[in-house]
Amino acid sequence: MTRPVCPRCQFLVKQCLCDHLSIVHSDIELVVMQHPSEVEHAKNSVRLLPNLLDNVRIVVGETENDFADLKAQLAAKHHPVYLLYPSEQSIEAPQVEHSQQGTLVVLDGTWRKALKMLKLNPWLLSFKSLHFSPQAPSRYRIRKAHRADSLSSLEAAALGLKALQPNMDITPILSAFDAMIEQQLAHMPKHVQARY
Hints:
This protein is an alpha/beta fold. The chain has a single domain, classed as Alpha/beta knot (3-Layer(aba) Sandwich), CATH 3.40.1280.
């Protein structure tokens, strides 16, 4: 039996987050390249972003063919395009010269899947790569991570946007994320909650 889903927030009606959603303005366009395995994942944080940001696009795929249109669109941009991905060539996001316009690309998937997406889409390496050092551990208590600096895609996107736009208030984004986590925990059986 299909469980009812809220038409606005796209979460189960019993886990509706609409009371926690408010749109945040961003001068920087956010593009999330989402691995297909994340789309239906119950703990997917990215699905919150269209309800929280006025300048966001989610493109699902894995291979270069999947992202052919996006590749062409990004190549045609007349403003800076940044890839948020830590590498030997990446620079600390706060060190980037701030721009009135720009595009931030985030890969949504596990570390392994994100790396695979990057290898399948080497054209992404033509953009300046950014990273940042989280000042606090991830709030993502309901998903296990093998790296101490791991963040959810939503957290990484919010902090990346903040680094490029220091005056941007990302509090509503992180508050909605916290509410999502609390809702998920509240509906888990006690023995499952104990793992987190």
